[in-house]
């Protein structure tokens, strides 16, 4: 049986994937990974589907013994990974065989790392996801953070044997993010921006804020200059997106994250853009945050550019030949076969099942 054995669990190590989507109307949080970029890159490096389940470790990493052959990749924050006693390069896939050991010496940068192995972690799928929501004792491994002595099953590796002998340069990437102690986050205006005074808005965009010790997968409490409201901080509860910046009556912002509640009754001054959420996810107590405003259109362009970069990385890695085989319908003549067009393929999973979507963009 292909397994991982947890010798030491670290501070907080959980099984996570892209999240439990489609159930917020029932009060079920999305959960899933905090840093989607590092998560997807870890999976792509080892030849998995980008949404396969991985381990997310926070601040202090686990000690793991592998009883599965394949590829291993660690991405995200630098928690001092060592593999069989030697420093392990991040953002690179390395061959792993039964008996190999992964451990961590201590944090150097960032806050969270992602541990992926070819085949992915095979915990039960609950509501379409393998992610762990510890507050609800839901998903992952028995609905909780890992403990010493836990064993996790690993799926069959999707890789051909030749992938394990590829040169190192074919199994590594240069990450798009660097994790610093001072972070500038781009945000779009929140739905209650008009609830804040002019002075309050100037404070938010001009003053630095420090991440407090009250920061976890649910949200980050910040401290700094209080943000003034125009009238009050309470609203009729409405939905909360990941990266929403709530400001209660005391004026100190709270950035909501993966395990956030589905609705909330505090004014939201802004929302961190999707492309910068990985930076927010890697912030830790004592880090300094600054916020700068962009338009929704600018945020969309930034996100589209990031997606193109990730598509290029996926193509360059090309660890799994099956990923390069187009679905049958791509060879079917298009209704616009006499018209120049660009074709783009998107692969995704929903409810645990793989899908492929082909988008054809006509060129006028």
From TrEMBL:
<keyword id="KW-0378">Hydrolase</keyword>
<dbReference type="InterPro" id="IPR029000">
    <property type="entry name" value="Cyclophilin-like_dom_sf"/>
</dbReference>
<keyword id="KW-0547">Nucleotide-binding</keyword>
<dbReference type="GO" id="GO:0016787">
    <property type="term" value="F:hydrolase activity"/>
</dbReference>
<dbReference type="InterPro" id="IPR003778">
    <property type="entry name" value="CT_A_B"/>
</dbReference>
<keyword id="KW-0067">ATP-binding</keyword>
<dbReference type="Pfam" id="PF02626">
    <property type="entry name" value="CT_A_B"/>
</dbReference>
<feature type="domain" description="Carboxyltransferase">
    <location>
        <begin position="25"/>
        <end position="309"/>
    </location>
</feature>
<dbReference type="GO" id="GO:0005524">
    <property type="term" value="F:ATP binding"/>
</dbReference>
<dbReference type="InterPro" id="IPR052708">
    <property type="entry name" value="PxpC"/>
</dbReference>
<protein>
    <submittedName>
        <fullName>Biotin-dependent carboxylase uncharacterized domain-containing protein</fullName>
    </submittedName>
</protein>
